[in-house]
Amino acid sequence: MNREAIGDRLRRIKIAANVIVIALVVIIIIQNTGSKEVKFLFWDFSLSLALMLFVTALFGFISGYLSARTRFRRKQKQREITHAQK
After folding, report:
1. Residue environment code for 9-27, b if the CB has 16+ CB neighbours within 10 A, otherwise e
2. Tally of CB atoms within 10 A around 32
3. Cβ neighbours, 10 Å, residue 8
4. Where are the alpha helices (DSSP H) in the chain?
């Protein structure tokens, strides 16, 4: 297999894994629709458990995306430096 085929295959695997994770998160959110008392620092409030799970998952996806993007850019800059030195 050439490098492009391997990259395409890995991309498809990542997409499939993301779809599965998103489906599981949606199922968990749908099954937990009750209300929950939340205490955060000085605040006490009641919040839908589904909304709390959604916001938590959203923060997780965003932080994972930003982390992967930062790592990718760092590797890309390192490659540019390596190629410039040659």
Report:
1. eeeeeeeeeeeeeeeebee
2. 13
3. 12
4. 3-31, 49-85
pLDDT confidence of residue 83: 74
Length of the chain equals: 86
Q: Coil, strand, or helix at residue 38? A: strand
Q: How many CA atoms lie within 13 A of 2 on its CB side?
A: 2
Question: From CA 58, how far away is CA 25, in angstroms rounded?
Answer: 10
The tens digit of pLDDT for each residue in 27-61 reads: 988 888 888 888 888 888 888 888 888 888 899 98
Phi-psi region of 47 (alpha: psi -120 to 50; beta: other; left: phi over 0): beta
CA distance linking residue 47 with residue 60, whole number of Å: 19
Does 1 or 35 have the greater pLDDT score?
A: 35
The tokens for 54 are 């959604």
